[in-house]
Design brief:
3 domains; 19 strands; single chain; six-stranded parallel sheet; binds FE2/S2 (inorganic) cluster; metal ion binding; Elongation Factor Tu (Ef-tu), domain 3; Ubiquitin-like (UB roll); Rossmann fold; alpha/beta
């Protein structure tokens, strides 16, 4: 059920000058609803000073979820972004005892089977707050399989701005021979310790074969800003890594314009959108140029969404009938597209009748 639930802040840790970790207590009746797979994210609803509703998405950084049984707490990392209303509020004002309104975890950027239970070697390349989901993925992979190995290559601005530095070091202490931690700093020159400079495609292509057995890596996880993900993908392509082994989660999209919507479908009797949401199936006429999400929200305000920009995947639904054109997709992987999933916030109907299932 895609409904917001009030969760109390049980702990707050200042990670850096501009970032905090917030641990949310999950009350017993919600323990099953908030079960999560490492790598998934939560959507938080907030109202700004004018009363306007904002939704922001944050990945769960831990703890390792119980193998079975309800979840008791979840930790997220929030970094203050320039102009970010909620992130400024979180870093400056939020305290233990405050309540956040939170959607249950979703997202397909999760551990793949080969590295979770068969002695696989996974590699993650992260930038900035992209560490957040990867931290819980690494902790879970290493805790769940005594033969698993994990290499974490982080690109950070400076050592002081590095989120979850201590948590990563503690994970390394727990699995010294199986977790490899590598850092590069983009805005700080050091004579010892982490290397400096940007992780571009050329650098990654030269670096990766010297630190991991590229051909034996079972899964690659890329998480961070668009530039880092594109550079890492280019490097992995050049190294001959199969695209099916590369999984990515974008944290900040670029600003390139989305594709324009297709011309509205014209059908006798008018176009129709049918949607199943939270167990109820309805049909409505879309307005010209509306996305599938816009038509849904006009009639069902409980439809799930967060970024409305094709990045977070919170709105994901399965296309059951008809055809849509997606303007942008930074969230769905090839296998999800092949299974018929779409991002309703980016989808315009191409056919006169379209049916989607938000519960699928
Ligand atoms: S709401 Fe974020 S991808 Fe649709």
């Amino acid at each position: 059920m895609a409904a917001f639930h009030p969760l109390r802040i049980a702990a707050r840790e200042q990670l850096t000058e501009d970032a905090v970790a917030l641990t949310l207590a999950v009350p017993e009746p919600l323990g099953d609803i908030f079960r999560y797979v490492p790598g998934q994210h939560l959507t938080i609803r907030h109202h700004d000073a004018s009363g306007a509703e904002l939704r922001r998405t944050y990945s769960v950084s831990g703890p390792v979820p119980p193998a079975d049984g309800p979840v008791r707490e979840l930790t997220i990392g929030v970094r203050h972004l320039p102009g970010g209303t909620f992130s400024a509020h979180a870093v400056k004002d939020l305290a233990v005892g405050d309540t956040l309104h939170v959607l249950p975890p979703v997202g397909g950027f999760t551990l793949r089977g080969a590295d979770g239970g068969s002695g696989g070697h996974a590699v993650a390349i992260t930038g900035g707050s992209g560490i957040t989901p990867v931290l819980s993925m690494a902790a879970t992979a290493l805790a769940g399989d005594p033969g698993a190995r994990f290499t974490l290559l982080r690109s950070e601005r400076t050592a002081a701005a590095t989120m979850f530095l201590q948590a990563a070091a503690e994970l390394k202490d727990r699995h010294p021979g199986r977790l490899q931690l590598l850092y590069t700093l983009t805005r700080e020159e050091r004579h010892t310790g982490p290397a400096t400079g940007r992780l571009d495609a050329g650098r990654l292509r030269a670096l990766l074969p010297s630190v991991v057995p590229v051909r034996e890596v079972t899964a690659w996880y890329l998480c961070g800003p668009q530039g880092l993900i594109e550079e890492a993908r280019a490097a992995l392509d050049a190294l001959g890594v199969a695209r099916a082994r590369v999984h990515a989660e974008l944290f900040h999209a670029g600003t390139e314009p989305a594709a324009p919507p297709p011309p509205p479908a014209t059908v006798a009797g008018g176009a129709l959108l049918t949607a199943t949401l939270n167990g109820r199936r309805d049909t409505w006429p879309p307005r010209p140029a509306e996305t599938v999400l816009e038509t849904t929200l006009r009639n069902r305000p409980d439809a799930p969404y967060s970024c409305k920009g094709g990045v977070c995947g919170t709105c994901r639904a399965r296309l059951l009938h008809g055809e849509v054109r997606m303007a942008r997709n930074y969230a769905l992987e090839e296998e999800e597209l092949a299974a018929g999933y779409i991002l309703p916030c980016q989808s315009h109907p191409v056919t006169g009748t379209v049916e989607v299932d938000y519960d699928a």
